[in-house]
Amino acid sequence: MTLRVLAAMSGGVDSAVAAARVAEAGHDVTGVHLALSKNPQSYRTGARGCCTVEDSHDARRAADVIGIPFYVWDMSEEFDREVVQDFVAEYESGNTPNPCLRCNEKIKFEAVLDRAIALGFDAVATGHHVRKVDGRLVRSVDEAKDQSYVLGVLDAEQVAHAMFPLGDCTKDEVRAEAERRGLAVADKPDSHDICFIADGDTAGFLNRRLGERPGDILDEDGNVLGTHRGSHAFTVGQRKGLGLGGAPDPRYVLSIEPVNNTVTVGPRTSLRVNEITGVRPVWSGSEPLTEPTACHVQLRAHGEVYAATAHQREGESGPELVVRLAEPATGVATGQAVVVYDGGKGDTVLGSATIAVTARVSASA
Description:
Number of strands: 17
Mean pLDDT: 91
Largest sheet: 6 strands, antiparallel, barrel
Main location: cytoplasm
CATH topology of the largest domain: Rossmann fold
Subcellular location: Cytoplasm
CATH architecture of the largest domain: 3-Layer(aba) Sandwich
Order of helices and strands: EHEHEHHEEEHHEHHEEEEEEEEEE
Pfam family, one: tRNA_Me_trans_M
Oligomer: single chain
Radius of gyration: 21 Å
Protein name: tRNA-specific 2-thiouridylase MnmA
Strand content: 25-35%
Structural class: alpha/beta
Domain tRNA-specific 2-thiouridylase MnmA-like central: 205-266
Low-confidence stretches: none
Number of helices: 8
């Protein structure tokens, strides 16, 4: 069956090979690059493979080699509203957002997919390293490049209209294939930084958006240990940059209170949590788990996987996901996603939620 497929082409090697594979499979493919900034010079430059000022040219050249039509879609207003402004607001609220996860959710698989379906396309193909098996997201065979976590926020309808041609191969194999196909992006470096923070200085970016807001750094008993220039510059688990020289033991950020503009620090042992409550649960690979169910969870991109039980319950503001970890985790930050995987191999995505509350293990545990 021939499908009309919109291939999202970032300008990197993964999306180029993904588009080539879909076209070679006989589908009717159109390439599209997303312009995400009204002022491209305010974004990162350099051949990095995601959202730079050069990437649209690389994507167009790849489309020409593949032999597919190519367009650029201006998504800058949606990107600023859904990703950049959300990023700032989340930090202002004391959370630690993942902008790439938010971009996948709101731009690549909501705004783009909605427009694609309206234009008569059957599916959107991307270069993410993840598999789709029986309609569910499954980890890539390349464990180091697996992106199932950042796609765990997708709902079942979005997954149904998505194609991920690269989940069955490694990144080295993708680069080798790109070279065989004559794609100039074969050796293009991967992107790692936040695209809309050109200099990589997240704290400086937030200070420019939110202004400096001096406040106190406290210990667990409420004693003032020092001061900071803005609680938005910190994240749970952070050790460096606290400005507490001379402390006998390492101190870590335990919590951030934006209302009082305080940052509480303490020993690493106080970072341990064994219960997590997530809000806005989404189930793409399972019906909602109404009873505690054995599973695995991942709490950050490329982070450790934990055995756990999870279930959905009705909270005061709507459905909540309750996760109880078999072993404590450290540095769990609100605003991040908790992605739930099956209880067997732990490689199939069941659902996800946004971390809202964590419960620490008692000192005696």
